[in-house]
Amino acid sequence: MIMRKIYLLILSLALCAGAFAQQRTAEEFLQRYNTVSGRLGADGVGIETLITEWEAANPEDINMLQAKWAYYYTKAATTTIVPMDQEKYLGEPPVLSLKDSLDRDVNYFQKIVFDDDMFGIATQAMDQAIKLDPLNLELRLAKLTALLTYEGDSPDLTSQGLNSLIDYHYHSHPAWVFSGEPVTQEEFEESVQQYCYDFYKIGTPTAFEAFREAAQKMIDYKSKNVVFQNDVATYYQTYKDNPKEALKRYAKVLKAVPDDYTAIKNSVLIARKTNDKKNEKKYLALLAKYAPTENERLSAQARLSVLK
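The structure assignment produced for this chain is given below.
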C-alpha cells in the first residue's frame, strides 16, 4: 500500500512537471536557454534537459533546433594536441615544438576530433532548421563551417555542400536573409570567397581541388568576377606550379581590371621566379603605379630601375 502511494506520488509529480513544460511558451524557453547557456555555455549543465522539454513542447521551434545543434556540436568536439611530421596543419603552425631522443624536431598541433554520433544529431537538428527556414543563409553557412571543421584536411562534403549552395543561389535566386537582414549579391560572394580562402589555407590536395571547384563554379555563373578568376590563377600558380597558365589567367583579370593588385603582384612574382625579365618589367611598372602603399610603389620603381 505504501509503495503504491509512493508510485502514485512520483507519477503525479512527473505529470505536473510535464504539464508545466507544456505551459511554457517558446519565448520562455528561449529566455531560459539564453540565461543558462550565457552562464554555462552551449553544453552546460541542465542544457540537455531544457532542450528535451523545449522540443517536447515546441518541436518545430527554430531557436530550439539551433540550441540543440549548438549543444550536440559542442559536446561532439574535443580539442587535442597531437604530434605530426609536418610544418603546418590546416594552414596553422605548431602550438609546440620539442626535440625527440635523436634531437629531431617534433611538431605538436591542435586538432579537433569529433564524436560521430553526437555530430550526427547536431547535423540532423540543423537540417531540420534549414528545412523550416530555407531562406536563412546563416543556418546554411553554420552547417558548412561545422562540416569544414569536422572534416579537417579532407573537406569533400564541405566542397559538395558549398557547390550545391552556389547552384541553388544562381538557379533559384532565393531572397536570403542573415540575422534577419537581406543578403546582397556581394555578401553572398564574400561568403563563398571565405570558404575558398579556408580551402586554400588548409593546403591539402583535396582542399586545393575544393578551392578550384568553388571558384570555377562562381566564374561559370559570373564570368567577369575577377576575385574568383584570381583564385583559379592562384591555384595554377601555387598548387599546380604552372606559371604559364597562371600568368595567362592573371592577364585576363588585368584586361578587365587594369589596377587589380592581386593579379599584378602575383604576375611580378611569377616573372621573377621564371627569370622572365620582360614580363617582370611589364608588371613592375603596373605595381609602381597601382600598389596600395607608397613603400611598395617606391620599391617596385627601384627594382624597375635596376632592370632597365
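Interim note for the steering committee: The first strand starts at residue 77 and ends at 84. Confidence is low (pLDDT under 50) at residues 1-22.
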